[in-house]
Amino acid sequence: MNATSLAMRGYAENATTVRNDRRSEYDVFGRVTKALRDTATKAKSDFPAYAEALDLNRRLWTALVVDVADPANPIPADLKARVIYLSEFTQLHTRKILREGASVMPLLEINMAVMRGLKSEGPSQ
Length: 125
Fold this sequence. Notes:
By secondary structure, the protein is an all-alpha fold. It has 5 helices and no strands.
């Protein structure tokens, strides 16, 4: 089983509680961000691993959008809109990285900002 399927399986197992358990979401973002950061440093020598980590990040953001778009998700509409925007940016920037060699830093910065937000919002609900 590859890293992508393990991480997505980990996210899927937590999908029902992600709205109530920011810690689980933080952990998934941490694993994906670490994979992205670690493979980016070796992108020239192991591009397939880098591309896989980029795809993992893209799939994480897709799963997040599916979760926030659920009408039963209680987060405020403005936060939902911001998550959707960041997901769209992630999709577009990932293509730029793969096609044009753009920097991965914006994706890492977004993920780390989300992690800081998840960590700072008080106790898990």
